[in-house]
């Protein structure tokens, strides 16, 4: 099958590699190169790196919805366009070019968690099961007909980074199953409860200590490795990577630190005390609390804000 592939981040790479191995990739569309890191050096999107290694033609338009890009894709005349976390909306005209339409690989069980950050929000919202959906795209936001689904469990201590890697590899396998059986797959209209997973940002990542312990721990896990849950301590930002529930009921105001030792930082919530382990205080590096307290003091009964 002749494919035009559209994708940008690491999540998209296994799907591109699978398409290269199993089918014919005519060209790759990805986002423009961007400054990255503290040095703001220009970096290629991961999909571009993969495409170049496979000697594929790469296009990086700032805006996909132009006549020039339509003409390029129309001239390529793909059987199908594959879209995996591309980051741009396809026009109606582009959607109508391929014989088999445009197929999106989405990291949730649609219609739940449509939008940009389904992996994070499925953990934050306390889902026990999530998965991958291949979908025939239409003009709506993740509203097209469902082709295939695969599910996976979300464990209690799973981070967004861990779930990302599971779904990333699951997605490439489901995509190939979809492509290889495209003419026989029964399309299913999206029905039932739907939800939206908005793009995360650092402002949204502030911890509300007035929530219960489970909600806070899910929040921390769901925002690891980015943008990382945070709060303020003595006016400075503290970021959290992991934690666990204790059986100790909270006996002070939410956010108050009960105890600090080499095992963790014990903090009150609405109902139970949680133990926070891997943290990043101020401008220091990520470290276990046992390392941090060797050279710094954290006052018992002080409060996170």
From TrEMBL:
Q: Where does the chain bind (6S)-5,6,7,8-tetrahydrofolate?
A: 108-111
What sequence ranges are listed for the domain Formyl transferase C-terminal? 200-296
| Pfam families to which the protein is assigned, alphabetical | Formyl_trans_C, Formyl_trans_N
Q: Which residues form the Formyl transferase N-terminal domain?
A: 1-178
> What molecular function terms (GO) are annotated for this protein?
methionyl-tRNA formyltransferase activity
Provide this UniProt record's keywords sorted from A to Z. Protein biosynthesis, Transferase
- UniProt EC number: 2.1.2.9
Catalytic activity as recorded in UniProt: L-methionyl-tRNA(fMet) + (6R)-10-formyltetrahydrofolate = N-formyl-L-methionyl-tRNA(fMet) + (6S)-5,6,7,8-tetrahydrofolate + H(+)
Under the cellular component aspect of Gene Ontology, which terms does the record hold? cytosol
Q: What class of enzyme is it?
A: transferase
Spell out the HAMAP family in the cross-references.
Formyl_trans
Q: Which PANTHER family match?
A: METHIONYL-TRNA FORMYLTRANSFERASE (PTHR11138), METHIONYL-TRNA FORMYLTRANSFERASE, MITOCHONDRIAL (PTHR11138:SF5)
Q: Tell me the protein family, please.
A: Belongs to the Fmt family.
Q: What does this protein do?
A: Attaches a formyl group to the free amino group of methionyl-tRNA(fMet). The formyl group appears to play a dual role in the initiator identity of N-formylmethionyl-tRNA by promoting its recognition by IF2 and preventing the misappropriation of this tRNA by the elongation apparatus.
Q: What is this protein called?
A: Methionyl-tRNA formyltransferase
Q: What gene is this protein a product of?
A: fmt
